[in-house]
Amino acid sequence: MTNETMTMQRALARLTSGAHLTREEARDVMNIIMSGEATGAQIGSVITALRMKGETKDEITGFAETMRALSSRVQTEQEGLLDTCGTGGSGIHKFNISTASAMIASAAGVRVAKHGNRAMSGKAGSADVLEALGVNINLTAEQAAYCLEAIGICFMFAQLYHPSMKHAAGPRRELGIRTIFNMLGPLTNPAGADRQLLGLYDRSRTETVAGVLGELGLRRAMVVSSHDGLDEISISDSTQISELAGGTVRTFDITPEELGLTRRPLSEVIGGDAAENAAIIRRIFGGEEQGAYRDIVLANAGACIYVGGQASSLREGVEAAATIIDTGKAQQKLYQLIETTGEVAHVS
Predict the structure, then answer these.
(1) For residues 196 and 103, what is the distance between their CA atoms, to the nearest angstrom?
(2) Mean of all residue pLDDT scores within the chain
């Protein structure tokens, strides 16, 4: 169907009857939303109906394809490029684990194009904590590309790259529930990263989202959701992982012990606001943290290093991450990111 036949009313009638949208129909619905042609009531009704029915792989893929097509793009070599953007929304206020992991992975030789936003449900999103660390987050696509080529890592502030999302902001805020939009940020990397560690708030959807990543052209990915409710690899419980590799998805559980890490209480990885979380990351990188904060970063950075092709197993990735911290390379990468993003902002 095309935009002329797939109206929001028709989509809503389909969804409320329990029927699914095709991938093409989902693209069309998202295009209507992103173009500003849909009313707030229509947007809220459609995304609520999708949530109640359960979003399919085709529906999520179609929405993501339209969002990607309408976003600003960072022009760079995509092969071997990693993102660590997750969904958030776990309701557990841990510190910014995926952001710290991205910098460690970069220091290990993985090219990282980190996509992220300010906090939606927690106290500090990746944009918030990077800003608190002294990183300039407001880079244009050209500046982000320069940063990536110069030091092997960049940050892309989602608000600057997806201007069409403004049309859905009001309905999302008024609904106050998780919808398909919570899944779209991690699926719409502006640099077209072909590798990803994606933390997901809903363990029942890891295989579906891994399948979506495959449909979107990613070569390697891990979608992770722990049994204790984290959208990260946990050190307090087993974590369910759906791994995309070679065009297929396999799902398995992994324990902290299998990663060579000590199991620790979930309460020991709780963070705070952006300033507190930035201080935690500085202490980890500076070698002052040897407990749970360090270990949960090792678990997730190790997965980044593995997905990025710099380790042959998750456990080897964890060991590599520990070496990166202990040799000061993680701290050096943070300093590079602060310096380079500061300098490039003053270059016309």
Answers:
(1) 14
(2) 94
- Return the residue matching tokens 């891990």: 222
What residues does 322 pair with on adjacent strands? none
Are 44 and 155 within one domain? no
Residue 120 has a pLDDT of 61
pTM: 0.94
Amino acid of residue 242: S
Query: Is there a single domain that holds both residue 55 and residue 151?
Result: no
Q: Has residue 87 got a pLDDT over 90?
A: no
Residue 330 has pLDDT above 60, yes or no: yes
What's residue 248's pLDDT?
97
- The CA radius of gyration of the chain, in Å to the nearest whole number, is 19
> Does residue 241 contact residue 248 with C-beta atoms inside 8 Å?
no
Q: Which residues are documented as binding site for 5-phospho-alpha-D-ribose 1-diphosphate?
A: 86, 89-90, 96-99, 114-122, 126
Annotated binding site for Mg(2+), which residues? 98, 231-232
Binding residues for anthranilate: 86, 117, 172
Residues 221 and 95 both lie in one domain = yes
Domain of 299?
82-340
Query: 3-state SS string over 152-168?
Result: CEEEEEHHHHCHHHHHH
Task: Transcribe 41-82 into DSSP letters.
Answer: HHHHHHHHHHHHH---HHHHHHHHHHHHHTS----S--TTEE
Q: Which of 70, 105, 121 is the last residue of a domain?
A: 70
What is the spatial distance between Cα 344 and Cα 23, in angstroms, rounded to a whole number? 40
Give backbone dihedrals phi and psi of 250, rounded to 5 degrees, phi first. Answer: -125, 145
Q: Which residue numbers belong to the known binding site?
A: 86, 89-90, 96-99, 114-122, 126, 172, 231-232
Matching residue, tokens 């097509």: 69
